[in-house]
Amino acid sequence: MKYTTLRVTDAGVVLYDFHVERLAPEGPAGLAAFARFAREATPGIYGVALAGGELRAERRTGSQLVEGMPARLMVSPFAAQRGAFPKSGSPSAYDAVRLPGVATLLTSADGSEILESCVAAVLGWDGTHFVGVPEDLPRVASVAEAAVSATLPFVRLPLRIDDRLPLILLNAVAGPCTVSTGRSPVAADAVLLLTEVLRRSTRRP
């Protein structure tokens, strides 16, 4: 079974093709079921579970990620793993590191690098490129990050705790969100680039 969380607008599913890529292991029958859902779904936020040709969609009230929320650091429950892995629904190990109203930035076991947040990818901005964590680090394979890396100037480098690189959180539901890390914010024109990626990726099949 594959799982994804998505937003539907009047224009369609945000990041539609990247959700398709996430769900593709369920095969042609699963993708056909997802296409039917995408054509018929009314605007809102959904958790979608797909097993073979059977799709289950549950409406959600919103994202746990909100612009301007405070942030904290915590070692990732997946710090011992290697590389990106598929998104899973609740219950999962992420439940234990989520705190309402707070963005938990998950770190390597030694606390020296940020890997992701509990509900979003974490990206840096160096003034020219968006910066994603190296491929071998453990984190959810983010559809939003995949869209950014495919369409915007993008490099992969460690996001070190002791660095001052501006950071922004990004997921498929809330889009780009600045949280309180004590660092300078990502430039407004760079945030607009992220918003535009999500807008251009929104469609119905």
Please report the number of helical segments: 4
The strand line-up of the biggest sheet is 12-10-9-14-15
Distance between the termini: 22 Å
**Structure classification:** alpha+beta
Number of strands: 15
Helical fraction equals 10-25%
Overall pLDDT level: 96
Radius of gyration: 16 Å
Outline the biggest β-sheet: 5 strands, mixed
Low-confidence stretches: none
Describe the structure.
With 205 residues, the chain is of the alpha+beta class. It has four helices and 15 strands. The strands form four sheets. A five-stranded mixed β-sheet has the order 12-10-9-14-15, with helices on one face. Strands 2-1-3-4 form a four-stranded antiparallel β-sheet. A hairpin with a 5-residue loop joins strand 7 and strand 8. Helix 1 crosses helix 3. The two termini are 22 Å apart. The mean pLDDT is 96.
SSE arrangement:
Elements lengths: L1 E8 L2 E2 L2 H8 L3 H14 L3 E8 L2 E7 L10 E5 L8 E2 L17 E5 L5 E5 L3 E5 L4 E3 L6 E2 L2 H9 L2 E3 L2 E2 L6 E5 L3 E3 L10 H13 L5
Parallel strand pairs: 5-7, 6-11, 10-12
Antiparallel strand pairs: 1-2, 1-3, 3-4, 7-8, 8-13, 9-10, 9-14, 14-15
Helix pairs in contact: 1-3
Quick gist of this model?
This protein is an alpha+beta fold and 205 residues long.
List keywords for this structure.
single chain; 205 residues; alpha+beta; 5-stranded mixed sheet; 4-stranded antiparallel sheet; 32% strand
